[in-house]
Specification:
14% strand; single chain; Transcription Regulator spoIIAA; 40% helix; alpha/beta; Glutaconate Coenzyme A-transferase; 9-stranded mixed sheet
């Protein structure tokens, strides 16, 4: 019988009594993680060395911390407003950052908040390198005996929705019982802030063994702050959008590159003339690019797209609102039910209109505005979104392969990577010294699926360079000591300088294509010379003649920045107008003070500069009435940066 309680401490009592030995607890990634329950459990085990806790999870989200004093002045008010002063930071994450987890507690993650735990020995030691679809099997191997999850509840309290995280709970429970182990103890924590999603996300209350409804106040859901989109990001997004086919299938990741891609697809559909002007400014021959001819196009999208993505994020909201995401599919159960009762002999329009879904995802994550959108969906839109197991979304082999192949026609899988090699391998999750930046997640799943489907393509997006000034490095390397996607799965790469279609190409063809989308500064002097030295190109291969430079890109996109076609925040912003100005200024200042010499020059220039000051921005940073030498210098630097952005 399901037990209902309202106390987190009592829930921990019940768990410890139910499982007297070592606790092997699974918790969802992202916002499906019950922070308050996990903190109560962590505190209890931390104080009792006789009990062991092994936590298996991923993406343990933590609000940002500032480094410099200027960053603190900007971040502190924003974090307070955006996350709330009562946001429950995960106690185990705070301990991991200090390498202070006690000996009786281990935390194993298969995906980390990007870059957040590079310095944690404990986090790095207990990282599990897994494809997303292999996690359920790994949880069974670990002997997970408890799963905790945040849920939404319907109005009469008879059903619970896994809402944000249908990804692993169902798969994990099935894998554990299939291995001959006892069904894990299932604990649900009801959160009224979590949007209700029905369909396959909803279960009867008695699916869980223990349901906790703790009293308020209820902390905000973790909201990802939406970031500004740079010129390079926009160029990548627009090039990538030209690889999409009307009536096809779309998977996207998260971040500024995905935001730019979604904005480009919306513009392609709603203002095709403006869309073409941007692309032609980037490449006057884009319509004749072989990859665009073979796999994409520039026309509007009247049939629309079907979204099938492990993560539903901000971009999908905009695509739905703009009428881009609207191609519906039906699942096997619905189709079989209609065929059995004689009401459908094939995928007719009535079936699609009434029972079809245009978006399938395994988890969602976004801004507070995105969560409000999910809460306030109309009935038709709510029925069109199906939250599924990750085994259904991320691969073809979950039992419905024939139907899924039909649904996922002309699939385009868009993901980001940090670096790529000239021979076509991708570096997305870690460094060559072995440290993990994030995780493999579902990237390998989607790359492999693109090769398994006859008309699908995998598109890996990356910025051509990183760093600034004299410290700019190419993200297209000759080789690297760690790869996420091996070179034999190479397909399409996109940088701000174009599209490289390298599927099935020889090494020589691949090198030339990848060099063509590298920065001019690094292409000939670095990549081509190294390729020739290693026998992969003829000794006297001509230098690549390109103008792949930030300056050329800035000039090409400047008119569209000015006329509003390319806004800084295409999906909306969590920052006020004053904060948006400060984001630009602080970013500029960070670039201009990256080295001791540059810092000195910038300080001198700020002391000599004059002109009007942005009083609102200085006030927001508590520098409108500076006190002391340090604050006066900060104010000068900030005024200087604001004047140049």
């Amino acid at each position: 019988m399901t037990e209902f309680i309202d106390s987190l401490d009592l829930a921990v009592d019940r768990l410890l009594a139910r499982l007297p030995g070592p606790l092997h607890v699974g918790a969802p990634l992202g916002i499906g993680k019950p922070h308050r329950l996990l903190n109560a459990l962590y505190g209890r085990i931390e104080r009792d060395p006789s009990r062991e806790l092994h936590l298996y999870t991923a993406l343990s989200l933590d609000p940002p911390d500032a480094g410099s004093d200027l960053e603190k002045r900007f971040l502190a008010p924003f974090v307070s407003r955006h996350f709330g002063d009562d946001f429950p930071r995960l106690a185990y994450v705070q301990a991991q950052r200090r390498d202070a987890l006690p000996a009786n507690i281990t935390v194993e993650e298969f995906y980390m908040q990007s870059g957040a735990l590079l310095g944690s020995t404990q986090a790095q030691r207990y990282y599990a390198s897994l494809n997303y679809t292999h996690v359920a099997r790994a949880l069974a191997d670990r002997g997970v005996n408890c799963v905790v999850q945040k849920v939404a509840v319907n109005e009469d309290g008879t059903r619970l929705s896994l809402s944000s995280n249908t990804d692993l709970t169902f798969d994990a429970v099935d894998a554990i019982t299939a291995a001959g182990l006892p069904r894990p103890y299932l604990i649900a924590e009801i959160d009224p802030q979590l949007p209700w999603l029905d369909g396959t996300a909803a279960v009867p209350v008695d699916y869980f063994d223990l349901v906790i409804a703790p009293p308020g106040p209820y902390p905000k859901l973790f909201g990802l702050p939406r970031q500004p989109v740079s010129d390079a990001d926009y160029a990548i997004g627009f090039y990538a959008s030209a690889l999409v086919r009307d009536g096809g299938t779309l998977q996207i990741g998260i971040g500024a590159l995905a935001d730019a891609l979604c904005h480009a697809l919306v513009l392609r559909h709603t203002d095709n003339a403006a869309y073409r002007r941007v692309l032609h400014a980037l490449d006057s021959e884009i319509e004749r690019h072989p990859a665009v001819v073979a796999s994409g196009g520039l026309d509007p999208l009247p049939q629309g797209l079907y979204g099938c993505s492990e993560m539903i994020n901000e971009g999908f909201k905009k695509l739905v609102e703009a009428g881009v995401l609207k191609r519906k599919v039906v699942d096997k159960e619905t189709l079989m039910r209609r065929i059995v009762d004689g009401s459908a002999s094939d995928l007719d329009h009535e079936l699609l209109a009434r029972d079809g879904e245009f978006l399938h995802g395994a988890f969602y994550l976004g801004s507070p505005e995105f969560y409000d959108w999910l809460r306030n969906l109309d009935d038709d839109e709510r029925r069109g979104i199906g939250m599924r197991r990750v085994s259904e979304v991320n691969e073809l082999y979950g039992g419905n392969e024939t139907l899924e192949r039909l649904q996922r026609r002309e699939a385009r899988f868009f993901n980001s990577c940090m670096m790529a090699t000239a021979l076509g391998a991708a570096v997305s999750d870690g460094l060559e010294d072995g440290r993990v930046v994030s995780g493999v997640g579902g990237q390998y799943n989607f790359v492999a699926m693109a090769h398994a489907l006859p008309d699908a393509r995998s598109v890996l997006m990356l910025r051509a360079t990183r760093g600034s000034g004299k410290h700019i490095e190419s993200n297209i390397r000759w080789n690297y000591g760690h790869t996420t996607i091996p070179r034999h799965l190479r397909d399409i790469y996109v940088t701000e300088y174009g599209i490289a279609d390298v599927r099935g190409k020889t090494d020589e063809e691949c090198i030339l294509a990848m060099t063509g989308i590298a920065s001019s500064r690094h292409a000939s002097a670095g990549l081509l010379l190294t390729a020739m030295q290693n026998g992969k190109l003829p000794r006297f291969t001509p230098r690549v003649s390109t103008d792949n430079s930030p300056e050329r890109l800035r000039q090409a996109l400047a008119p569209f920045r000015a006329d509003g076609s390319l806004p800084d925040y295409p999906l909306g912003s969590d920052f006020t107008e004053v904060e948006q100005r400060l984001v630009r200024a602080l970013s500029w200042l960070k670039t201009k003070t990256a080295t001791p010499g540059a810092k000195l020059l910038t300080i001198v220039a700020s002391l000599l500069s004059g002109g009007p000051s942005d009083h609102e921005a200085l006030q927001r940073m508590a520098l409108d009435a500076p006190n002391g030498i340090t604050e006066r210098l900060y104010a000068r630097l900030l005024r200087h940066a604001l004047a140049h952005t």
